[in-house]
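Notebook entry, structure prediction.
Reason for the run: the old model in the group folder had no record of what sequence produced it. Starting over properly, with the input documented here first.
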Amino acid sequence: MIRVLEGRWKLLILFQLFGGQIRRFSDLERAIPGVSQKMLIQQLRQLEADGVVTRIVHPQVPPKVEYRLTEWGQALCPALDALLLWAEAAPRD
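New structure, fully documented this time:
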């Protein structure tokens, strides 16, 4: 199941959704510099298909779409926190 995290942008998306945060698509787009709209949509759809992210569509005009971690996705948080601590402890040249 490690393939769930494959992709350049998925970890950045997950970090934006940590702690039960609900983020609008436009908020994610602004928070992740360098990601194209097409790539963000693709990565979010893959995370949704894998059961990590839930997509919430509000029936209004203009459309409002929000994303949040599923319960299973939220269970990734401690592992990703440990990964961050590991990366921060990397030796500096």
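Summary: The chain has five helices and three strands.
The old model has been moved to the deprecated folder.
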